[in-house]
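SEVERITY: medium
COMPONENT: batch folding queue
REPORTER: lab tech (J.R.)

DESCRIPTION
The queue accepted two submissions in a row. Attaching both inputs and their returned structure tokens so the on-call engineer can compare them side by side.

ATTACHMENT 1
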Amino acid sequence: MSETKTDTAFIRETEEEPRMPGHETALDRKPEWKPRFPGSGRLEGKVAIVTGGDSGIGRATAVLFAREGAKVAIAYLKEDDDAQITADAIADEGSEALLHKGDLGDPDVGKALVDKVIGKWGRLDVLVNNAGEQHPDEDVTDITREQLQRTFQTNIFSMFYLVQAARPHLKKGAAIVNCTSVTMYKGAPILLDYSATKGAITAFTRSLSENLVGDGIRVNAVAPGPIWTPLNPCGGQPPEEMDDFGKDTPMGRPGEPNEVAPAFLFLACEDSSYMSGQVLHPNGGIIVTS
């Protein structure tokens, strides 16, 4: 066990999975992230933040938002090459991107991101809390204190920090969309701490919705199933299980990021104007009780 103390307010990256979150450019099979259909202006004139936007679901969501007219700020941990690909794709859609590098488990990083967005564009309309990490462990006793705190810090504490920083700038009509997971609903025997954070995110989503809906701010979530992103092949799943990743879904395959991004778009735009506190389930046909 490392010498990091868990009584500190911030835990830096552990040595559990040093490759995570991973470079999308390094994957042999690249995820499909490009939007599949023409835009229709559903986010025209809006400004959005997408965390974990350098790759995977975050990239697909950020580029789709740009196609729909939004200016998009991308928060990412350290993968500069992936983040630049996302920024270039946003520019190709005729929109503007802002890149912000840092660990969102540190509340100062989230505040700096919001300040940068307001300073550049003067508004914030959509907050997508998508960044996360996971570390597989076969036995609950294998989860170190550092890993436990780090997973909660990245997956749920960061959402509190960002919402706190964003709240003064969110006006009537704004939307928050959080990323929870199918593991919150059906469990995951080797992802105990990760699944617990996703349960917390779902509860946070529902409670925050009740807290903000009276001010005209909607809060919803998306619970993806197994999606082909860098998170899993770069350490989020045991290597021996990657050949069968997603094959246990009713559709018999993992999903692609551009099959999940439309769920975030729907909840971010006025198409879902009568929805708050809800969760969408792009999960390959897995039946869950929501």
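ATTACHMENT 2
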Amino acid sequence: MLDVRRLRLLRDLARLGTIAAVAQAHTYTPSAVSQQLSALEREAGVALLERTGRRVGFTAAGRVLVAHAETVLAALEETTAALAAIATGPTGPLRIGAFPTAVRTLLPATLVALGDRYPGLELTVTELDPVAVPAALHERRLDVGLLHDYDVAPVEPDPALDAVPLLDETVFLAVADAPGTDPSGVGGVPVAGEDPLDGVRDLPWIVASPGTLCHTVTLHVCRAAGFAPRVRHQADDFATVLALVAAGQGVSLVPQLAAVDPPAGVRLLPLRTRRRTRVAYRRGAAAHPAVAAFVTAIRAATGDVLAR
């Protein structure tokens, strides 16, 4: 009989690439991970890993077992969900991961609704960049999490996770509505032609930190319009971005959820680009009462926010 905990370590080795990374994810020592994988090989009765110096690869049998491990772990999630459904209602811990804009706009009403209807739920929110959510779900630090991507920069789905659509947003070009004190004259941007980007190609930009999805999307959108943005400021919080735009410090791209209540002096010009947000959870967990309750509650909260 194969040990499920060891199967999870093998799956995570395929996902993370090194024993050291697996050890860090599970708060084990690398030696402990190696011992557990060796024990899994004895259980399987066949070599699963090929070791060349410090590098570890998978044998053909190892690759087969990794593929089946995903099925086994998903089946366990389904079993857990089925057992939880027998209870009187959603109870116990529900660990939620979400990006800052969603924490500020969508989660307050979601948490209130869940707390009122299901007092047995123990709700915990962690603010996370969407790129960190899949790993947190894999490592069972989260039960549900919000992911997003853009139509111009799609993200490949994770085979170990399931997700349902939550929100499809317009992305806006944020510009100053009136001249500010900045001598560059960013305020009162003229918008030429049908494409708002035509009027800002020579202006300074406020962009997210390099390596983030928002930074990648800004570069992609600008290059598709035929120019490279002249970066003046870097900021990851959209409230900060909009404040800088209002102060005449540059222009920026802002998704609809972040532009629900823009400061005075900011004009929002819709672009063709879309941001897509999904609720993600481990494969097999869709029927878990707590997960299903969260999906229902956050969809209702999202509808209310957009209606306002």
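NOTES FROM REPORTER
The beta strands are 49-52, 55-58, 92-98, 121-127, 144-150, 161-176, 204-207, 230-234, 252-255, 266-282.
No errors were logged for either attachment.
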